[in-house]
């Protein structure tokens, strides 16, 4: 609508001044129109007329600008100059005069036709019209590009009337990507059944074919009826390189009869045939494509061309490099008011120089930026991560309308990291002694008061070395501890540039930073300091960077017969909400602690020793010693966790295996036997095992016994744990018990659940809880990632989880199993997400400029996902 309005406005403006323009008679020779005006059009020589274009020499003295219009036929009627100028203004094809002569390329003609070409010169308020009649020759090649614009192209195929052929069309970037990644050659595009399973559109006989953005590729094709649902639309964009293949085929689309199978590659040595003077045709050849084992012998042509570039806007996006350090460049982009939005891409200068020829030339670079960059509007400050000694190119495409047909292009090349002459920032780190078992802390101080920022990673000490081992196995660079730490810091380091924190670090008192923890466990802090030029230094070695959290303080012992009477074998029954859901029952064992093993069974010992000998290349003596040491640790930690549960006034219920796939049961002893389960240390198997729930025994306000299923709790006033309870299970899938709203799956939270105990102590019910009038049932969720993505493993209805005591002779749910029946869990060392248990300083949100990713320079990554 905007375009139509502008065009009509221009027409009306010029028509009102109709008395101010006049037309000259047609004149084949230059004429004189006033003392300072010499205008005319010279008939083109025969070698300047092609099938689709012709070049005219013009006399332009005295004119401000000119346009042309080609009309099919001899002695065609003169067009209305006002209308032609209005159309040219809309399409951006008005040519400004800069001298007394000029050459004009008239494109978009067709072969073997007669045209009258009109040139309209604007002289002051008048229009002068001159014309020439030309005859275009017959098409001299198999494929000739007639014309292109920003979103379409028209080509002519010249073959005998009875010849069938297919049309292959692909953008130049994909063409090069498939060549690099898959070794695809030109013969792959001309033999039938091309890659992707989609047959090319087929045609018969000589004809014009138009390829237009958004139009079904099979429209007008011989096999249009097979693909008439617009499921394969063309994509054609401004200033973009494309490759077109036209290849002879049979009526059914097969290539039978047009392929010779050979032992070695071959092909014609004919020079490329050029039958068009269009500047956007980059390559044309009718050379027969070959591969290592076949040669195509039918009619075949390959054309590489670039679509019309977008119209030039009048605005700008100003690029100002604010600051460059050893690590980053900060750049401010300020668009003028007429810029609709703009697209930004960052690549290395070397990658850009390599990529541009593959895309089809410099004129295609702008289109590549448009398709691969990030979109912004308004003024933006952007941060670019730099590598030492590498030159970067920041490219910006400014758009001036929603259709992206008017653009400008802006670049800043040669952005490089500096080498700082300032000293690196030194840190003094002091661990804090805290009584909270769920909190640890460090005091960090920069004695020279020169810290401009820092990064950190903190995790439990026992988990660091397996992570380093994983880095080795994944092929990441670095063999020394510091190299591995640097790799981790680069990938996972948390940046801190908050002025208040940095101010304290640069003060004489330093800054105290606190982190969450589990009880009685050592954490290892790793730091990377930054000076004002972002020169870095790592800090990690020594006792100052490690601190152990306080152990849990035993709760006041509860005197209750329930500690003994509730132990034993039970059956747990759960039912999903809704009608028709049958109850699901599973065995559960309630005990004082994890399973105790008095001595190492010989079959388990043999199994593990053989594993370490075969897989880890231990000697028999070393393998036996290792297995015995591990078993001693197992016994020690069994006693430790049994006492810990007692100090918490808890019994542990194991089982709750609602699904053999998502909730299989594995005791600590099962995990000890498994050679595919990986743990950071022996403690992990006593935290990961399950499914399990903790039943805490206490007293109500009247002094009567009460039972509660307890969960992890966070103090809302501090953001730190007020209680940490191990997950329901974490060896195969991370399972947790949540309070769940059956009416809204996204409504849940972690809660403690009351347990109702029958008078005969043979039935226990884990009851729902209520909050704000809503009933939340105790339901099991699967946590897939550290980010907290949940999948409801089992939603429980309003009755809750009902446990009934099993018969006295029933086998316990977690009975000791031998090697032949032991669980063989397929888990990696990072089962679940062990980093989940240590968190950043609560409430801190770093403020950063928008960070730009560096373009990979690969042709493949972006397009192969489309």
TrEMBL record:
Keywords: Signal. Residues 1-17 form the signal peptide. This is Uncharacterized protein. The keyword Signal applies. The keyword Signal applies.
């Amino acid at each position: 609508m905007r375009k139509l309005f502008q065009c009509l406005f221009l027409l009306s403006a010029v028509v009102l001044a109709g008395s101010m323009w006049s037309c000259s008679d047609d004149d084949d020779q230059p004429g004189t129109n006033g003392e300072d005006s010499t205008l005319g059009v010279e008939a083109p020589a025969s070698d300047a007329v092609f099938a689709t274009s012709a070049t005219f020499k013009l006399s332009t003295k005295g004119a401000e600008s000119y346009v042309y219009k080609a009309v099919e036929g001899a002695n065609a009627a003169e067009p209305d100059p006002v209308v032609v100028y209005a159309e040219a203004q809309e399409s951006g094809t008005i040519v400004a005069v800069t001298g007394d002569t000029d050459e004009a390329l008239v494109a978009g003609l067709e072969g073997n036709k007669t045209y009258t070409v009109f040139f309209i010169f604007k002289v002051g308020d008048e229009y002068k019209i001159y014309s020439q009649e030309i005859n275009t020759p017959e098409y001299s090649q198999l494929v000739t590009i007639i014309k292109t614009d920003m979103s379409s192209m028209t080509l002519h195929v010249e073959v005998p009337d009875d010849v069938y052929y297919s049309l292959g069309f692909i953008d130049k970037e994909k063409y090069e990507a498939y060549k690099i990644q898959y070794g695809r050659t030109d013969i792959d595009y001309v033999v039938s059944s091309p890659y992707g399973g989609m047959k090319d559109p087929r045609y018969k006989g000589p004809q014009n074919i138009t390829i237009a953005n958004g139009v079904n590729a099979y429209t007008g094709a011989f096999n249009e009826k097979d693909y008439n649902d617009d499921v394969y639309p063309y994509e054609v964009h401004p200033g973009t390189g494309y490759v077109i293949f036209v290849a002879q085929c049979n009526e059914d689309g097969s290539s039978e009869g047009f392929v010779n199978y050979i032992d070695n590659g071959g092909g014609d040595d004919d020079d490329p045939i050029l039958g068009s003077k269009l500047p956007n045709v980059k390559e044309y050849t009718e050379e027969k494509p070959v591969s290592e084992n076949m040669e195509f012998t039918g009619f075949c042509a390959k054309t590489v061309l670039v679509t019309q570039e977008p119209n030039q806007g009048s605005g700008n996006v100003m690029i100002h490099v604010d600051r460059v350090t050893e690590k980053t460049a900060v750049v401010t982009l300020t668009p003028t008011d007429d810029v609709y939005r703009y697209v930004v891409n960052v690549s290395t200068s070397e990658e850009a120089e390599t990529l541009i020829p593959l895309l089809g030339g410099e004129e295609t670079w702008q289109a590549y930026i448009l398709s691969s960059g990030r979109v912004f509007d308004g003024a933006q400050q952007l941060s670019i991560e730099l590598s030492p000694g590498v030159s970067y190119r920041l490219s910006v495409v400014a758009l001036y309308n929603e259709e992206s047909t008017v653009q400008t292009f802006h670049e800043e090349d040669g952005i490089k990291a500096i080498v700082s002459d300032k000293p690196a920032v030194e840190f003094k780190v002091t661990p804090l002694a805290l009584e909270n078992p769920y909190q640890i802390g460090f005091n960090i101080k920069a004695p020279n008061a020169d810290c401009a920022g820092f990064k950190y990673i903190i995790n439990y000490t026992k988990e660091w070395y397996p992570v380093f081992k994983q880095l080795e196995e994944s092929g990441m660079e670095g063999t020394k501890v510091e190299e591995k730490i640097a790799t981790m810091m680069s990938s996972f380091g948390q940046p801190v540039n908050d002025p208040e924190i940095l101010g304290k670090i640069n003060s004489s008192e330093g800054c105290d930073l606190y982190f969450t923890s589990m009880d009685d466990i050592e954490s290892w802090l790793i730091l990377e300091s930054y000076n004002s030029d972002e020169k870095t230094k790592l800090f990690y070695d020594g006792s100052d960077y490690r601190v152990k959290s306080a152990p849990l303080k035993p709760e006041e012992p509860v005197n209750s017969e329930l500690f003994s009477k509730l132990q034993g074998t039970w059956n747990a029954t759960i039912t999903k909400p809704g009608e028709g859901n049958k109850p699901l029952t599973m065995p559960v064992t309630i005990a004082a602690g994890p399973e105790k093993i008095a001595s190492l069974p010989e079959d388990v010992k043999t199994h593990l020793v053989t594993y370490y000998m075969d897989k880890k290349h231990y000697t028999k003596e070393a393998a036996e010693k290792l297995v015995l040491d591990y078993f001693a640790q197992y016994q020690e930690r069994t006693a430790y966790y049994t006492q810990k549960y007692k100090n918490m006034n808890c019994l542990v219920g194991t089982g709750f295996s609602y699904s053999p796939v998502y909730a299989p049961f594995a005791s600590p002893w099962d995990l000890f036997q498994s050679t595919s389960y990986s743990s950071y240390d022996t403690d992990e198997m006593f935290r990961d095992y399950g499914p399990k729930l903790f039943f805490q025994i206490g007293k109500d306000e009247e002094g009567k016994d009460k039972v509660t299923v307890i969960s992890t709790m966070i103090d809302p006033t501090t953001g730190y744990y007020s209680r940490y309870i191990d997950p329901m299970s974490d060896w195969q899938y991370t399972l947790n018990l949540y309070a769940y709203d059956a009416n809204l799956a996204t409504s849940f939270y972690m809660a403690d659940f009351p347990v109702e105990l029958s008078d005969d102590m043979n039935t226990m019910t884990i009851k729902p809880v209520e909050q704000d009038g809503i009933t939340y049932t105790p339901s099991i969720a699967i946590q897939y990632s550290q980010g907290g993505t949940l999948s409801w493993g089992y939603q429980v209805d309003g009755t809750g989880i009902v446990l009934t005591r099993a018969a006295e002779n029933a086998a316990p749910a977690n009975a000791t199993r031998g090697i032949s029946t032991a669980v063989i869990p397929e888990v990696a060392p990072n089962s679940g997400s062990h980093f989940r248990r240590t968190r950043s300083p609560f409430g801190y949100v770093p403020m950063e400029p928008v960070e730009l990713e560096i373009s990979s320079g690969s042709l493949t990554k972006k397009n192969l996902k489309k």
